[in-house]
Write the structure tokens for this entry.
Amino acid sequence: MTTHSFQLRCGVDGSAMARTWRNGRLSCLSVNDYATMAAELIRKSPGDIVMHRISAYARRPTLLAPEWIANKWLAPNLVLEKLKQRGAQGSLTEKPFKAAL
């Protein structure tokens, strides 16, 4: 079994990314843009690959940006909604996901 993890990087206080964000050299994706890209990546991934950790989670005051990361289920639920609308994992490959019966 192959597994993959992908996640949005977020600005967490004290990190190099936070310094870059504070200096105005880093912009963050909207939750909709992130969910769209994640769903398309999942649709292009064969159905026999296990996906986990499709978004990050952090809270203020540690979290700097994007603010929607603080809502733990917002991104995963939006990704799921997009997959329901556009097609499941692997739907753009020759190995779509097939539920075990």
